[in-house]
Write a structure and sequence with these properties.
About 45% of the residues lie in helices and about 10% in strands. It is α/β, with parallel strands linked by helices and about 475 residues long. A hairpin with a 5-residue loop joins strand 10 and strand 11. The chain is globular, with a radius of gyration of 22 Å. Pfam families: Lipase_3.
């Protein structure tokens, strides 16, 4: 058994009838044990929220293969059009026997996110972080978007989280950037992870979202003892009473997991570039991993690395833990100035996940920079309507989605050609009218928020 408390939710362990029985009975019965392992939820609301999340995860799992094939087909068709110069170019090439067939995995094969927003350049300001916050945020949001620029090959996601690291100069760098790849729109596992309510508690630190911890390679729910093996301080690590086998297994996978690989590479770069500081960023799932990475540096007492941290900027990030975790990390991320900034755009669904209420454990922390649909920035403790899933939000969300569709059609004329949205992005906004909150998660609006939003007045860290 793993030390400390934990809860693992297994929606795959039963059918519809089992879910009905779970909803009808109290904790401690066989139906609870079928779906849950570890600490039983103590509040009735917890059980209902977990039930809803399991139903949604079952629906996502049911559509996993169709979703994957739809994404692959869409990727191929979009690249077929772009490689041949739109529909008219494709028709011309077809008639002349010169159709260019895109090859998945090649450098020229662009993901759906890349087709939604093909901007790759930074904003007009020369990137000098010491001059202000806007160029730094622009670099982070573009790095977060570009991690999703190419499509992953089948099976790659199962092996590891994807990350890229860059330095602002080949020698004598002043900035090192670590960007984690975010949620892929047609990957059922990514969306299921956002809805997962499994957690592991580190004594003195707080509860961590188990799915995100797994994505960093710091444990496996098949053997909960592996979480204890990885989620402990150096001092606690001297006690190996959980058994040599679990610890040996944990040590064996360190070389191939995201967290240890990134940490090792970052240590090497910080040693090479003596005056450099580093920044961590990511969009969606990548944002969750971006804040979880320095959290684990603190847990592992890697304070030498943390002293070189410039900041953490996340975009559309889901919640990663409870209020105690937030209090634990604030001591390391808010002094002498704030270092953690969580950017949220309008009705984006993902920052409202996993569900949070007065009785449940998942809470955001850090400075929230909220942008409404007019790209007006406001510094808040929590994004408005933090649980915007009730019936009273339905009308306002649909009305706002209609406005965003109109805005997408007009923004190129109002703000200039670089903001003009293509047919595929407009189609995505149409889908957003039906499913509000999905379209708002697109990196396009996060890039626009940083570039069109007013300057923040809060004090930012500088190199």
């Amino acid at each position: 058994m793993a030390r400390g408390r934990y809860l693992i939710v297994f929606p795959e362990n039963g059918g519809v009838t089992d879910l009905i029985r779970y909803a009808a009975r109290r904790g401690g019965d066989n139906d609870s044990h079928r779906f849950l392992e570890g600490t039983e939820p103590s509040h009735p609301d917890h059980r209902w929220i977990i039930l809803i999340s399991m139903i949604l995860r079952k629906i996502i799992a049911f559509f996993a293969k169709p979703l994957y094939f739809l994404g692959s087909l869409l990727d191929f068709l979009l690249n077929l059009l772009s490689h041949n110069g739109t529909i008219f170019g494709l028709l011309h090439n077809f008639l002349h026997g010169k159709v260019v067939i895109p090859e998945k995995g090649s450098k020229s094969f662009i993901s759906t996110i890349g087709e939604l927003d093909n901007r790759v350049h930074l904003c007009g300001l020369t990137f000098k972080p010491e001059l202000g916050n806007r160029p730094l945020m622009d670099l982070c949001v573009m790095a977060s978007k570009c991690t999703l620029w190419t499509s992953t090959t089948a099976g790659m996601k199962r092996m590891s989280t994807q990350v890229f690291i860059l330095c602002d100069k080949p020698k004598g760098a002043s900035l090192i950037l670590v960007s984690f790849r975010g949620t892929e729109p047609f990957d059922a596992d990514d969306w299921s992870t956002d809805l997962d309510y499994s957690w592991f508690e580190i004594p003195g630190v707080g509860k961590l979202h188990m799915g995100f911890v797994e994505a960093l390679g710091l444990g496996n729910r098949v053997d909960p003892a592996t979480f204890y093996s990885h989620l402990q301080t150096r001092t606690a690590g001297t006690d190996s009473s959980d058994g040599d086998q679990s610890l040996t297994s944990a040590e064996g996978i360190r070389k191939m997991t995201a967290y240890y690989t990134v940490r090792s590479k970052l240590e090497s770069l910080l040693e090479e570039h003596k005056n450099a500081k580093f920044i961590v960023t990511g969009h969606s799932l990548g944002g969750a991993l971006a804040i979880l990475f320095p959290t684990m540096l603190v847990v592992h007492e890697e304070m030498g690395i943390m002293e070189r941290l410039l900041g953490v900027y996340t975009f559309g990030q889901p919640r990663i833990g409870d209020r105690q975790l937030g209090r634990f990390m604030e001591a390391h991320l808010h002094r002498p100035v704030p270092k953690y900034f969580r950017v949220v755009y309008c009705n984006d669904l993902v920052p409202r996940l996993p569900y949070d209420d007065k009785t449940f454990l998942y809470k955001h922390f850090g400075v929230c920079l909220y942008y409404n649909s007019f790209y007006t920035e406001k510094e808040v403790e929590e994004e408005p309507n933090r649980n915007s899933f009730g019936p009273r939000f339905i009308l306002s969300k649909h009305v706002n989605a209609i406005w965003e569709l109109i805005k997408g059609l007009l923004i190129g004329y109002v703000e200039g050609p670089e903001y003009k949205e293509g047919w595929f992005r407009i189609l995505f906004r149409v889908i957003g009218v039906v499913l509000p909150g999905i379209s708002a998660h697109c990196p396009t609006d996060y890039v626009n928020s940083i570039r069109l939003g007013k300057e923040s007045s809060i004090r930012m860290p500088s190199i």
